[in-house]
Amino acid sequence: MRWALVKVCVAVTTMVVVAFAVPLGLVIKEMARDRAFSNAERQAAAIAPALSITTDRDQLERVVASAGSDDGMAVHIPASDGAKAVDIGRQRAAAKDIATTRSIGRASTTEVPGGSTLLQPTALSSGEIAVVEVYVPESEVSNGVGTAWAVLAAVGVALIVGSVAVADRLGVRMVQPAQRLVEGAHELGEGKLGARVPEEGPNELRLAAVAFNSMADQVVQLLANERELAADLSHRLRTPLTVLRLNTASLGDGPAAEQTRAAVAQLEREVDTIIRTAREAKPQTAAIGIGAGCDASEVVRERMDFWSALAEDEGRKVRVAGVDRPVRIPVARADLVAALDALLGNVFRHTPEGTAFAVDVHNSEDAVIVLVSDAGPGIVDPEAAMARGKGSGSDGSTGLGLDIVRRLAESTGGDVRIGSSVLGGTEVRIWIQLDGRAPVRRGHGGSVRRRRRGVGASRV
User: Any idea where the HAMP domain is (predicted)?
Assistant: First the structure.
């Protein structure tokens, strides 16, 4: 916008300068020509009194010399009454032009090498017509014209430069509020809810800034309401959780009872975490500091120990690989636990009993990949499975399980990909970046396939 305004002002000012400067320059040129020929006419008029009195050559030469134009003036007297024609000074005009001026009886100009001549007819006492020739060099005709054109050009350039400066200032006045509005929109899009823009500039941009600030206030208010709603809904779970915890005390001893009590305790901790996160307005997968994180191998071993008891009851074969040595990742332990429980819960909920599954951890220099695969029937609609907050339509599916996994990966600069596993079912690949750089997109058959058939064990 700024440069467009400058270009428009340059174009308009240039047209105005040309429209006025060119005609003015031509007028100045014509005025210089008129001035030169007016001087020539005055010089010719100074000879006329002498010609009306005498035609003596010596006297006329003295008169021409006294006029100071002996080299640029000539007098042509025709022959009469037996007297010979007299020519004084240097003749530059053609004889026919002199004869034409004598015959028509009025002054005329003619072009000669190096300039022009003024031919002025003058009546003699004898009744004959003498012609006074005054030479006007080209330098005298154009005297001062070049300077005038230079002044006009300088004025034109000054006007153009001034218009550019004014247009640039006007452009800055309009562009700066627009730039601040764009920066504010980017900051708001990046999650900086305190981003606001000054309400200044042209009226239209000022109204846009007012609307943007109002929108940002509404966004903050809506998010605050959503956090309060999430906290309230989570708090409502405390009563049934308390009943479950009391009932688990009557289950006695045994692996199943211990697993049930551990699950209820973990559920209570998750609800407390949700409430605290909602109250503090911080995302559960927020980036953590340097040196923080967890050991992915340790977390995988722990969660597989938890789920292996249920797998044994359902006759599922379980395989774990890549957890024989520590693998540090920049992810909070609780977040990785929630992500693994969401994926493993999906395996148990959406595959038949006896379906095998596996968890593999692959470590490289810049990324860690956690693979959760199964031998189930696969996913019918991968795109719908990866849609945020959309369940499969079955009972117990909220559509948030894979969203938890995705937010965990994206908090490190990674992503989540869904494809076919070597076991014949679904493979969910969690790509966790170790250095925070954006991951290199690797397509599966030309595109990234993201899918799930239903999300269970989702964390709200």
Answer: 172-224
What is the distance between the alpha carbons of residues 422 and 372, in angstroms, rounded to a whole number? 11
- In CATH, what number is assigned to the domain containing residue 397? 3.30.565.10
Residues 319 and 245 both lie in one domain: no
pLDDT digits (tens, 9 = 90+) for 220-252: 888 777 777 776 666 667 667 666 776 777 777
User: How big is the CA angle at 93 (ends 90 and 95), to the nearest 5 degrees?
Assistant: 105
Rounded to two decimals, what is the model's pTM? Answer: 0.43
Host domain of residue 328: 294-433
**Residue where the block lists tokens 């809810």:** 193
Q: Which amino acid is at 393?
A: G
Indicate the residue among 231, 247, 280 that finishes a domain. 280
CA–CA dist 421, 343 (Å, integer): 14
Strand order through the sheet with 115-123 = 86-88, 73-77, 129-137, 115-123, 108-112
